[in-house]
Amino acid sequence: MAMVDNRPPSEGGGGGKVWGLFKLPFRNTGNSTTHTTTSSSTYQTEGSNTQNSNNHQGLSASNSVSSVARSLLPTRRRLRLDPSNKLYFPYEPGKQVQSAIKIKNTTKSHVAFKFQTTAPKSCFMRPPGAILAPGETIIATVFKFVEPPENNEKQMDQKRKVKFKIMSLKVKGVMDYVPELFEEQKDHVAVERILQVVFLDAERPSPALEKLKRQLAEAEAALESNKKPVEEPGPKVINEGLVIDEWKERRERYLARQQVEGVDSV
Fold this sequence. Notes:
Blueprint: E1 3-4, E2 18-19, H1 29-72, E3 79-82, E4 86-90, E5 96-105, E6 110-117, E7 123-126, E8 129-132, E9 137-145, H2 155-161, E10 163-171, H3 180-184, E11 190-200, H4 207-226, E12 236-238, E13 242-244, H5 246-265
Parallel strand pairs: 4-11
Antiparallel strand pairs: 1-2, 3-5, 5-9, 6-8, 6-10, 7-9, 10-11, 12-13
């Protein structure tokens, strides 16, 4: 719609010019569009930042949940122990007694193990540690001095005093065992078991006591078989009593060589 101004020219009416009244509100159309576009871009940027922040928080929460879930999972053990969580000792106050535990490497890698105890002055292990090849088994012997009860002390009280711990460490190939391995790679050390002490009546037969005796006998037999025979110096007896004195033979060969050299010089 357009309106015509009928006022005379002297009054500044514009000589009947037509005014486009409906175009006035749209004079700043370009500025409004720019402002709207800028506001939209700002909103999108803020929304993107908010989404990234939410994603980061969600990822952190997911990692936390994963770490908690891993901590709740049972530790994959490298060794199989027999007995699995106890050390049986015959109860003989005032004497040094022995226990035994069979240790087997159940992995496909070499594994080092190490004993620890809360009473190093009255207990020691043989061996205190070793490296086992894949599938290898060893019977370790544990020695303990049983202190006489004091002030009506019960066996249960002595059980709680002493504990043993077996730790394991995966190693690369065959190497000599040294305790420093566990200090150098402490982040990779796993606690296999914490063993409780159980006393057995030495005069009353029981399946646990019989099993302990068998394991101790196996440990002693393995220890003896690993000992290398020491060769005694002196004459050796071969076949039916023939005695050969090595030093005598060497002396005779030396004298014969001297005689030959003497003849040649002449």
